[in-house]
Amino acid sequence: MKPCVLALALLSALSAGAAGAQQLSPIEERIVAEVKARSPAAIGLLERSVNINSGTMNHAGVREVGQLFRRELDQLGFKTSWIDMPPAMQRAGHLLATRAGKQGKRLLLLGHLDTVFELDSPVQKWQRQGDRVSGQGVSDMKGGNVVVIEALRALHRVGALDNTSIAVMFTGDEEDAGDPKDISRRDMVALAKNSDIALAFEGTVLDQDGRATATVGRRSSSGFALEVKGKQGHSSGIFGERAGYGAVYEAARILDGFRQHVIEPDLTFNPGVILGGTQVGYDELGSRGTAFGKTNVIANAVTVKGDLRYLDTVQRDRAHEKMRAIVAQHLPGTSASIAFEESYPPMAVTPGNLQVLALYSKASQDAGLGAIAAVPAGLRGAGDIQFVAPYVDSLDGIGATGSGAHSPAEDLELASIERAAIRTAILIYRLTR
């Protein structure tokens, strides 16, 4: 039986086995009531966090959001600390909160404080429209952070956090993880190795029928850098034997070759920035570039920066081979090279991940919130969970429900905070008994 078929069969068996299990216990009903009683205050906490710009490179803003959530975790009896990164890495650091106990599973809860909206972003902050709200990072993933806080708060209020082992890490650079990653994710990996289950609170994706899903697998993320050279000369000579085709035409040929010959299911490659002309420069740290050229001069240089996402290393190696072959087919008068850089490892779909999903789905069903299905791995981007998934059973995508992530239209369904916090609180309660 193929691994994917085995995984689906196991999930069906687990779901069927859970169907006849207990409904909410009296203490679980109290937990739900605590979450619901806090719903207006939870929205207020979300609003305060969204109104603080915390683009990855706005280190002061990231720390300010971290301090906001740190105060909440302090009140819940967690031991909190701020993990600084080396200055050369140009990252704000991470918030860590821990409780030490001996009861039940050891849990690691993951969120992130940063957003893609930097300090100079024109995107508005908190804007409420009825039952939805838009704003910087409202669903990716300040909403997920609030879900964590409110679930833990409900458990704290009924005394269910006593003697549990729970670590909470909110990273400050998930949207642009600092390099080297063996340093920026070192503490997270160490926590995972001392945990039994990891839960991450990126946004919940709805299926085509509007039902909630969760993530048991995610594609890897890597980058590619394409450098193209041509012969600078008078534009009237373009296409000629002496002048050749120039760097811009060669870059266009290569990228279109990728589009025509490299595409396959669950594989994507995105040229996110392209600079061409007679003088080009790219600032890696700031993700910004400059280009100079004239319409009557053949461009002699093009720089392309992009990402490449894949399900496994076999698919990665196949894509690399095809892309290198396309790059090597130079137009006259040009040359080009491509380099690849690894970023996020894959999160494989494992029996352990599927078992955590089954338990989460059962918690949701018992609370009257419906079953939770697995979202196809190819539909999710990269996330912090992928650094810990090789070491611990993992589940992601259990935060709030929104749309338009990373765009000016990013928004959130406010009621999803309460739903996700209820599911999470019940799951944590059951895992830590």
TrEMBL record:
Q: Residues in domain Peptidase M20 dimerisation?
A: 216-333
Q: Which domain of life is it from?
A: Bacteria
Keyword Transcription regulation carried by entry: no
Q: A Pfam family for this UniProt protein?
A: Peptidase_M20
Question: InterPro entries, from UniProt?
Answer: Bact_exopeptidase_dim_dom, Peptidase_M20, Peptidase_M20_dimer, Peptidase_M20A
Q: Does the keyword Signal apply?
A: yes
From the UniProt annotation, give the residues forming the signal peptide: 1-21
Q: Which UniProt keywords apply?
A: Hydrolase, Metal-binding, Signal
This one is known as M20/M25/M40 family metallo-hydrolase
